[in-house]
Amino acid sequence: MDNHNWDLIVAGGGLCGLSAAITAQGKGLNVLLVEKRDIPGNGFHIDELAYPHALKQIFSDYENLDNVLTPLRRRAFWIVTDDAHTAWECVTSPDDSGKAGFVANRPKLDYALFDRFIALGGELHSNEEATDLILDENGVVIGVGCGDDEDEDVERIEHYAPLTVIADGPDSKLAGHLLKRRELNPDETILIIKETLTAEDCEPSIRMTGSSDNAASVVILGDPLDIGFSWARLIAHRNKIVIKAYVPHDLLSEDQNLNALIEQLKMHPSIEPIIQGFESESFTTQTIPVAGFEKQSDVLWGEGFIISGKAARLYHPFDCRMTDYSIVSGVIAGKAAVDAHIDRRESQPHGYPRMISETFLMRDRNSMSDFMNEMRVKPQFRSVYPQMLLSITEGIFTMDARSKGIKKSDIEKSVRSKCSIWDTLSNFHRLFKLYG
User: Fold this and answer.
1) Mapping DSSP to helix (H, G, I), strand (E, B) and coil, where does residue 326 land?
2) Is 393 left (phi over 0), alpha (psi -120 to 50) or beta?
């Protein structure tokens, strides 16, 4: 038993847990981070996109992390239609600083976060998996238990604190105990297929940006896997390419081979020249909920606990900005813990749902999940989806003297004239307003 007087326990040392722990420790709380692995981190060498608005919340000097972050200088959209391999491509110019976004080396980012937490005075208990929550006689969470009472070979350790942040990932045992989660149906989930390719003597960033110091991100829209509705992304930087395909689970047949789907994507005439000479380093799959938060955010906290990050089933269901979501949701959990401590109601993080609702997390989640569901229930929309994207993308990236408001109005009129189904899709209209 651990009798240390902790202010906060964070269960899980991924991006979300580390961000929560750094935020709370940096504001004066005495934080214990419990992690089942040797050291915190995601354990997968899958690099992700990350943006300043999230990074600066935990790294005021994020621009100096040259060994962690590769500047994203090229963002492109390839739209696949029935009559063309790549119907149209557009490339955005970076902002003046060239720091519009980054590709983050996940292992190195995790290490940097861990170092920051320790430098702030936080304490890590590694190789301790939080297996259950400790409740008092009133059902209030008062700590976590590590180890199994029924396994004599595993020492049972208990840690106590007024508040616990649950950030132990998408298969969270702790959140499952609290929420009595049901299994998600196939039509409520997206399958993400990821493959990382590497080459010793070739850098894809040079092929796509002309420089080994820059990174590129390409979003491929218009059902590139030819299964009814799908999209994909290429992330190229240094000597790596990450290929990610996003597939609504209910559109996959039982006999479809996931490796074969990725191989089909890699043979695309626009992709094959880029990946020549590369070999597979890793292949992973992950299932995520379409709707992001499983329930409304006020269910994800209670007396003595906060559920955050992937444990809260918090995802971006359209382009899956996992890094941003994990960091920001962790920071919010840490801030809610600090506010509860300041208010002398250490076990009651009342501010958490309000903070969540005031960020892009819920806004994006609602718009994107509504759009996904519209696509699923209206097959006729899927048939015009590539043409709609062509009109929108071409309009957005046509530079002229029109104001932003007039340009949006003109693009909407153009799309309506080509796709009558638009009139039934208020959610797509909202999506366009947010991201157009």
Assistant:
1) helix
2) alpha
Q: Which of 259, 289, 319 is the endpoint of a domain?
A: 289
1 lies in some domain = no
C-alpha distances out from residue 413 to 68, 91, 355, 410, Å = 43, 24, 36, 5
Contact 290, 188 (CB under 8 A): yes
pTM as predicted: 0.85
Task: Report the number of distinct structural domains present in the chain.
Answer: 3
The verdict on residue 152 lying in a domain is yes
Q: Are residues 89 and 234 in the same domain?
A: yes
- pLDDT single digits (tens) 336-367: 999 999 999 999 999 998 998 888 887 776 66
Check if the beta carbon of residue 345 is closer than 8 Å to that of residue 34: no
Residues 67-88 pLDDT 10s:
899 888 777 778 776 666 665 6
Instruction: Indicate if 50 and 163 belong to the same structural domain.
Output: yes
What values do phi and psi take at 192, rounded to 5? -105, 120
Instruction: Report, as ranges of residue numbers, the positions in the chain whose pLDDT lies below 70.
Output: 1-4, 40-46, 81-99, 148-154, 291-298, 316-320, 365-399, 404, 415-416, 418-436
Do 322 and 259 lie in one domain? The reply is no
**298 and 333 together in one domain:** yes
CA distance 53 to 213: 22
The tens digit of pLDDT for each residue in 137-164 reads 999 999 999 986 566 666 889 999 999 9
What is the domain extent for residue 209? 74-101+185-289
DSSP string, 70-134: EEEEEEEEEE-BTTBSS--EEEPPP-TTS-S-EEE-HHHHHHHHHHHHHHTT-EEE-S--EEEEE
Find residue 159's DSSP bridge partners.
144
Is residue 372 assigned to a domain? no
- What the block records as the tokens of 293 is 């938060």
